[in-house]
């Protein structure tokens, strides 16, 4: 039976009684097989597995995006049970932000590029909530997908900068059979847009340059935020209708 703990105090009391390594998978819910891959890695490498589910409002630069984020608690609970999760930390906003977000964690270089250039304040919200979650959960290892590669890099950097005692474990992007990177936002795509979405992966893996990829996506009907090659990876963010999709591949 999965323990569901709602407040930091409840979780910390439970955590004191745990022995062995704790593996942690922080999420915003709407779990899919990409999250399951993180949980499987955590289960394989640790004695205790913790999942958090918290749709973090401070990382949404668009309030409408926050409001329509998919909530699938019953399905999430089943996935947690199937993957032998020991505890779910499922807090409310007042418990996570008793200060009303007066205090935050900021990075002033890499977070300004790529997604950060298009989503002001997004990574402040991500880093702040992840630090809070690490302080509550006190994990030995935490698992993050490479689909959000910029996020993964920034969290690794934060852990190093603040001498935090947690190992960040990257997990390869999980894809649908047609190449589309697994994402909770895929649930928001119309059937027509879902058919079109795999063009992103096909384009970024076959185009010779990022400029060529951007032109091809625009021609296919995507509203392209960016296609950029940085440090041997190609990053993309593009919209289909109201849904913003991101991906990256090694080049």
Task: Describe it.
This protein is α/β, with parallel strands linked by helices. It has 2 domains: 3-171, HUPs (Rossmann fold); 184-246, Pantoate--beta-alanine Ligase, Chain: A,domain 2, CATH 3.30.1300. It has helices at 8-15, 33-45, 63-67, 73-82, 93-96, 115-118, 122-137, 149-161, 191-196, 199-206, 210-219; strands at 3-5, 22-27, 48-53, 87-89, 141-145, 167-171, 223-230, 233-240, 243-250. It starts with a strand and ends with a strand.
- At CATH level 2, the architecture of the largest domain is 3-Layer(aba) Sandwich
CATH topology of the largest domain: Rossmann fold
Main beta sheet:
6 strands, parallel
CATH class of the largest domain, please?
Alpha Beta
Order of helices and strands: EHEHEHHEHHHEHEHHHEEE
Strand order, main sheet: write it out.
1-4-3-2-5-6
Could you name the ranges where pLDDT drops below 50 across 5 or more consecutive residues?
none
Kindly name the structural category.
alpha/beta
**How much of the residues is beta strand, in percent?**
15-25%
How many domain modules? Answer: 2
Helix content: 25-40%
- Residue-averaged pLDDT: 97
Ends distance: 43 Å
* Helical run tally: 11
Oligomeric form: single chain
The strand count comes to 9
Fourth CATH level, the homologous superfamily of the largest domain: HUPs
- Large-scale geometry: globular
